[in-house]
Amino acid sequence: MALVPLKRRSRRGGAQAGALSPPAGPPDSGPFPALVLYLVEKRMGASRRAFLTQLARAKGFRVDGAYSAAVTHVVAEQNSGAEVAQWLKQHQVDPGAGGDPALLDISWFTESMRAGQPVEIQPRHRLVVTAPAAQRGRQMAPYACERCTPLLHPNRALTEALETLAEEAWLSGSEGRSLAFTRAAAALKALPGQLETMGELESLPGFGDHCRGVIQAVLEDGVSVEVERVRLSERYRTLKLFTKVFGVGVKTADRWYQEGLRTLADLHNTRLTRQQQAGLQHYEDLTTPVGRGEAEAISREVQAVVQQFLPGASVTLAGGFRRGKPHGHDVDLLLTHPEDGQEAGLLSRVVSWLDSQGLILYQHSQENSYGPREGAKPPSASGHLDRYERCFSIFRLAAPGTHRGWKAVRVDLVVAPASQFPFALLGWTGSRHFERELRRFARHERKMTLNSHELYDTRQNLSLPAASEEEIFQHLGLEYVPPEQRNA
Ligand code: CTP
Ligand code: MN
Ligand code: MN
User: Closest Cα to atom 16, ligand 1: which residue?
Assistant: First the structure.
């Protein structure tokens, strides 16, 4: 479909006339006098814009280099309707001077060039302008990645009820049902005030009858009978107990339950993997929340070792702590080096050294399995959201003042090359639901595939590079959401 190879990225954004920008076109002339085109440079790039301008002019179209009230058709590429509308608002020469141009996707332009005349505008050509959530009456944006979700919110009782049902559904293997409860809870977490009436649910996305019923019960009676029944059920309590053992998933926990096992003591009589043995052995420590101070201490410890083996390499605390949580179930650390390739082999040396010092109680590592162009296939291999070299471990953290003098802490170490680091950071900051929503938004709204390695535009068959998380949000046409607002 593209007429010339697409420009990856224009560093010089904006519409200011530069060396490559086309000059203003002649006043009303040519075969289509009712038409005045304007091409938006953002994401199209200056050189492609100049090329398309020339092409259209050669076919008799009037294309203006500067935006004015005379423009009838605004054509953009890889921009959302909201972005183009925002741009127009900023560049309106004289807001009073009329001018209500059609906002069109490049597809209209391409088809018109092929036809040699302007084709009729179809709905699919139009860029849909949806105002930011705040301006859209009281309707909340449908995807969690379009909203700000702070860590603390005023609807805790409601979200906890829904999340109990989400967890129960997950423990029963009903992922779809679990997701529906999680989505509803996530919407409530983004509400600035306390929900007081059922009517207020109208503005929230994702509330079906079941979720409504639960909310109604909690609003009216203070509790939902269904939720309380789940909380007290033997199956729910046992499966929760078992899945909190490091290395135990829903399937295993469910099998043990079917076999009649009920307590941690019962697990000593069953066959366990090496990982599960470690999980059981350190169960108490691993289910005691990790504090921010402990996470930072581990991060510094790893940083020192990393520096020793590869000067210039860095360690970044990701996961819940990056989102501002004061506690977590583990410590997620991302390792990288400014020069691509230098990071190779780093992790095994770091882990071996820590191990030799007696600082690691358990670890299993995985090699990097990410090859060039593999990103087009979503890396969906069982449970692994990405293919970076990584290590799942249990650290022995010094804990002065405790009877043993140390504490077992779960630590995830992940290594990303610099060119993929922003994707790794975005992917490992979470929350899990926020990540899922980002990928769903990319797929359904942008026809792009996002994972922790890259963002791939399937319409143009190209990978969109990014030097920061902000640039990834820009590529997606999303407002930047800072980590502490990703607590969906
Ligand atoms: N993650 C991942 N691949 C995995 C495990 C986790 O990409 N195999 C990502 C998750 O998507 C999540 C982030 O890493 O966004 C952190 O995961 P996790 O530690 O499980 O959750 P936290 O949000 O950090 O919660 P907690 O504070 O309880 O650790
Ligand atoms: Mn974590
Ligand atoms: Mn983790």
Answer: 319
